[in-house]
Amino acid sequence: MKKILILGGGTGGTIMANKLRSALEREEWEITVVDQFKTHYYQPGFLFIPFGIYNKNDVIKPKSDFFPPGVKVIFSKIEMIEGKKNQVTLENGKILKYDFLIIATGTQTFPEETPGLKEDLWYKEIFDFYTIEGAIALRNFFKTWKGGRLVLNIAELPFKCPVAPLEFVFLADAHFHSLGIRDKVEITYVTPLPGAFTKPRATKMLSGLLEEKNINVIPEFYLERVDNKEKKIISYDGQEVQFDVLTIVPVNMGNEVIERSGMGDDLNFIPTDKHTLRSEEFENVFVLGDASNIPTSKAGAVVHFGADVLFENLMSAIEGRPLIAKFDGHANCYIETGFGKGSIIDFNYDTEPLAGTFPLPGIGPFGLLQNTKFNHYGKVIFRWIYWHILLRGKELPIGPDMSMAGKKL
Amino acid sequence: MATQNIAGVNIDVNDEGYLNDPSQWTKEVAIEIAKEEGIELTDKHFEVLEFLRDENEKSSTLTIRKVGKSGIVDIKGLYDLFPGGPLKKSSRIAGIPKPSSCV
Ligand SMILES: Cc1cc2nc3c(=O)[nH]c(=O)nc-3n(C[C@H](O)[C@H](O)[C@H](O)COP(=O)(O)OP(=O)(O)OC[C@H]3O[C@@H](n4cnc5c(N)ncnc54)[C@H](O)[C@@H]3O)c2cc1C
After folding, report:
1. What is the spatial distance between Cα B38 and Cα B26, in angstroms, rounded to a whole number?
2. Mean pLDDT in residue range A342-369
3. 3-state secondary structure of A375
4. Which of A73, A93, A395, B57 has its CA 20 to 30 A from that of A383?
5. pTM of the complete model
6. Of the residues A54, A105, A247, A305, which should be mutated to test ligand 1's pocket, given the most ligand atoms within 8 Å of the CB?
7. A205 and A266 co-located in one domain
């Protein structure tokens, strides 16, 4: 029996388990997934929790609901990956051998990396919304907050879902408007980037929205530490920003198992061929999603497009053929902008987000780089698509390669 | 693309003044560009520049954190050496492409 081992049963690991189980003979291939947790979190939903739009039950389901029959699932922490020996060790010392390995251990937040962040004010006046715990703690804080300085800060690049912090401030603006206290809330967006976003045209559109909504932007701020007494964040070059409540996107890094196994870069992301999605170090190891170091967004949509390419290439590798499927870095993000509207951007390694219609050229229904009601429904529908189509590895009407049709240069 | 005469040599630079070809870089070129940025280069600066050039050669993504872990300077030290946008300035002086942050 030949063995495929999948590390991580989140978005990417679950998609691959589904795709591979339906493609490979059960008598020939054993497929095993390992994950430490039994609950699958719909992470994009975390964004809505602080504002009471979603609650915990809207974003969790048992992981086991999404693995197909015939896939072995082990709930355990992964201790070590040994690429040279083609084996993985679990927390209890059990060793799993593999012929092919797929690593999809994602990225996590590490607030400990920033001095002063996880101290006295943590989950009292400093919150993250990248974990369920943080999102719920912030929800409870907002319930009784009377207003003041709300600061959002991104601690380090890259971070997962690069539009999420922008969506957070847009939704905060709408939320405090609806509570009738927007005039008592000062919202400031503090980022290490030179502007609201990296790509020029999207930055222009998003900067316009930020201005319209009276949200201050402080760019090129690289966080050194948090002062809990004086309630301010301080950058390496001595800039200081005062807050009454701080929402932080902590340093994002790959899981510790990647560091323990000596497979990661300085942020524990795994060096990966950006086109084939194969590990640069081992021929029989592929990396999917946030765990890799490929230069595109760390987002569920990217994981989904990447999974198509990884699947093709893994099938080629199994049959000893060259890896011909090439990932183009396709990312596609709905951006929630508040007041029932949204925007959408579509881009890849080489093409920045452009205006136009999506996915059908000239028709849409979604307007790229525009702020419309319809785009908001895209985000709402995405949750349904995520649970019912995406995780199950089924085809969406959008292929992995980005299309230029319908885009305006 | 434009050609700029730096330290007596014609060098290809892009709109933002970054070298198009890292192999055209010399110490003299670095000293000239640094002057434009208002920085006088010391041995410590050159250690950082060499590190950046090596990493660029290996085509690894450069971050301030990575330089901070290089053992040459810590992050604060990097800000002291290249005030105001340390990675952007040091990359330009090192003759390597402008660091692309995440998307
Ligand atoms: C607030 C927020 C908003 C977002 N919004 C969007 C959005 O609108 N659109 C979008 O496309 N994406 C969005 N994302 C991003 C998206 O959720 C992720 O990019 C995607 O889930 C990544 O999938 P993955 O498989 O790489 O990792 P994950 O789904 O995170 O899975 C990793 C899995 O590996 C397991 N694991 C890790 N290490 C170990 C170990 N040592 N032992 C055992 N198990 C381990 C974890 O338990 C986890 O289940 C958002 C994310 C956040 C946090």
Report:
1. 18
2. 87
3. helix
4. A73
5. 0.93
6. A105
7. no
Q: Domain for residue B101, yes or no?
A: no
Q: Calculate how far, in angstroms, residue A159's C-alpha sits from the geometric centre of ligand 1.
A: 11
Q: How far apart, in whole angstroms, are the C-alpha atoms of residue A250 and residue A117?
A: 9
The Cα–Cα gap between A176 and A208 comes to 20
Strands A100-103 and A2-7: parallel
Inside any domain, residue B80: yes
The protein residue with its alpha carbon nearest to ligand 1, atom 27, reads A106
* Tens-place pLDDT, residues A167-182: 999 999 999 999 999 9
Residue A325 counted as domain residue = no
Count of domains forming chain B = 1
Candidates A5, A14, A32, A35: which one to mutate for ligand 1, based on the most atoms within 8 Å of Cβ?
Answer: A35
**What is the interface pTM, i.e. ipTM, of the complex?**
0.75
Residue appearing with tokens 């989140």: A10
Q: For A27-56, what is each residue's pLDDT tens digit? A: 999 999 999 999 999 999 999 999 999 999
Active site residue B60: no
The answer to whether residues A207 and A165 belong to one domain is yes
Q: Which of B60, B64, B102 sits opposite A222 (nearest CB)?
A: B64
CB contact under 8 A, B65 and A156: yes
Angle between helices A300-318 and A11-23 (to 10 degrees): 40
Alpha-carbon span A293 to A102, nearest angstrom: 15
